[in-house]
Amino acid sequence: MNKQSTFEMDTHTTAPPRSVRILGVRLDNVTSDDAVARIVAMALSGSPHHVMTVNPEFIMIAQQDAIFRATLEKATLCIADGVGVLWASRLLKRPLAERITGVDTVNKIAPLAAQHGIRIFLLGAAPGVAEQTARILEDRNPGLIIAGCYSGSPRPEEEEDICRRIESAHPHILLVAFGAPKQDLWIARTQSRLGIPVAIGVGGTFDFIAGIAIRAPHWMQAIGMEWFYRLVREPWRWRRMMALPRFAAAVVQSKINGRRDSADGR
């Protein structure tokens, strides 16, 4: 299948998806396959797009951080990465289609990128992790072009060097693993300069693909307990996990108050 036929088959991906709002934050109501199709179409389009993987922590940060909230609002695609987000959407009678994790998204993008000559740059995570992730993705997807890897950091003093590295690599997709909210604020700050067709904040995705972090068994993922599995394995995350009960309380209060955000986030 050539690029032209891909565009003909996926013309629906150019239309904005339906969206819902949870505590004022927009989430696009797409399936995993639809999200991946849209991302591939964005990569082939040439114009810049920002994709955000939204979980309860993102939504709670947005309640206090106006810049991050604006970044979420401006993003091209906001996908639901977190079982808590799905729970909230159902409680508020605006159900999202499914959870779409960063790991699953990258694993689905990779074979399509190999097929269509889409170049990917991996930025972030601990030193060596992006390179290990690149080797695994290339082994699984013959023909995949990893245009570059760099751990880097979102610190302002590193920004010029990182931008030069990315510019010289000419990727179609930039995956940024700096963690929330830094990764997406970094993308928003640099995207006009870089002009990359797609930039996605992917959190701990590289760690999972490289085997540094271990995902919960499928049965725990299915019942929405992946967060608990990760907390047991990484107890230092407890401070970040405190966003979950605060998020749940805020959603329940929103339900009690009968607050009705717009069903269409655009």
Task: For the record, give the distance between the C-alpha atoms at the N and C termini, rounded to a whole number.
Answer: 33 Å
Query: CATH H-level name... which superfamily?
Result: Response regulator
Summarize the biggest pleated sheet: 6 strands, parallel
The proportion of residues in beta strands is 5-15%
Radius of gyration: 18 Å
Tally of DSSP β-strands: 8
Sequence stretches where pLDDT stays below 50 over 5 or more residues: 1-11
Strand order of the largest sheet: 4-3-8-7-5-6
Number of separate structural domains:
1
CATH topology-level name: Rossmann fold
| H/E series | HEEHEHHEHHEHEHEHEHHHHH
Q: How many H/I helical runs?
A: 14
CATH class: Alpha Beta
- Mean pLDDT metric: 87
Shape: globular
Helix content: 40-55%
Structural class by secondary-structure content:
alpha/beta
What is the CATH architecture annotation?
A: 3-Layer(aba) Sandwich
Fold and architecture overview:
Helix 2 packs across helix 6, helix 3 packs across helix 4 and helix 3 (56-64) packs across helix 14 (243-257). The longest helix has 15 residues, at 102-116. The strands form 2 sheets. The protein has a 6-stranded parallel β-sheet, sandwiched between helices. The protein has a two-stranded antiparallel ribbon with strand order 1-2. The protein is built from 14 helices and 8 strands. The protein is an alpha/beta fold. It is 52% helix and 15% strand. The protein starts with a helix and ends in a 9-residue tail after the last helix. The chain has one domain (19-256): Rossmann fold, CATH 3.40.50.2300. The relative contact order is 0.16.
